[in-house]
Amino acid sequence: MRPPEPVEPPAPVSFWQAFAYWLKLGFISFGGPAGQIALMHQELVERRRWISEKRFLHALNYCMLLPGPEAQQLATYIGWLMHRTWGGIAAGVLFVLPSLFILIGLSWAYMAYGQVPAVAGLLYGVKPAVTAIVLFAAWRIGSRVLKNAWLWAIAVAAFVAIFALRLPFPLIVLSAGAIGYFGSRFAPAYFAPGGGHGAAAASAGPALIDDDTPTPAHARFGWGRFARVLAVFLLLWLGALGTLAALYGWNGALAQMGWFFTKAALLTFGGAYAVLPYVFQGAVDHYHWLSATQMIDGLALGETTPGPLIMVVSFVGFVGGWGQALFGPQALFAAGAAAAAVVTFFTFLPSFLFILLGGPFIESTHGNLKFTAPLTAITAAVVGVIVNLAVFFAYHVLWPAGLSGRFEIPSALIGAIAAIALFRFKAGVIPVVLGSALAGMAWQLLVR
Prior knowledge:
This protein is an all-alpha fold. The protein is 71% helix and 0% strand. It has 16 helices and no strands. The relative contact order is 0.17. GO terms for molecular function: chromate transmembrane transporter activity.
């Protein structure tokens, strides 16, 4: 029997009470965006009743339209709505800060002890599991998005463009957006937004920010506030990038990381898996901050930590800073940690801008936002790009020495079992990664 629905809203929540929750969330936010959003819904809508179902979904729909990690942006939005600008900054920063420290520690262990047999064995098992996870992500997004032949064609064209023609990811995104724009004019039925977030669950009772709660003063749109927020963020971005260029030169690794990951942050439509090919092209092929094998290892580590998966860019920064010995051979850890912090700052700064700049406008609508036709087409293209990423991983995992080298049968078996667990039994990412890691370590110990 269900307990009776509360009739009074909960007591007001102070900034520091919310701060404690956002800090806790940063340590337990496993499971990717879907799991993180579900966790916030359970806590903030159902249990704590800080925000109503309708207002929660209203904020989520906006975050789903933005480039960047939607779960982190949703936390920022709710924190901002509750406790003004500093509430949003606290929520967004604490969502990623624990993950940054954990990844710096794991990256140091990887660079210092990555050749230790036990560590190498764990990574041997995790890499084919990550390949299966990426393929599963493509299937999950595709099954939701590819609703007709037009969208399937866009996905296939995107795969061919990046796999066979080696076209840059930004060009693919812009082309897909243009197709969606013209498609909405000439064939609107094929580019209508699909899916949603499901019907609203039964009411959990009155909330602090309820369906009919007036928009607080700080969340009301005004052009003066819009201009001030934009100016502050531009100054922050230019000041940080200018400082790095002044200290280490524009062509130095830190300034180039700041510029490159700013661009990457603006292209993360469809989640981390969608932008990873762009990061591969830049970090591995163009700048040579790390190798393809190291990039795959970094994604494997990223899958095992809390926070957004895009935090794998912190690993990219750490390895790049360490490998280039930015501060000399005696300060490799400092170089890696500094580069990881720089990359994280520039990757997430736009997310805060989008929320603090656009949030007041979204609060003024209180309607159900829908995906635009260009975004529908971009999301379809993202499916093809993610499949390319899975192919890239499979090649480097199964033929580490190239097609002329040995085929890694144990890796293929681990990957196949991981895929069965994900597709057939709907297993979670963390159990799959941990099980695969143990299998890899056991195999490496057997063949020693």
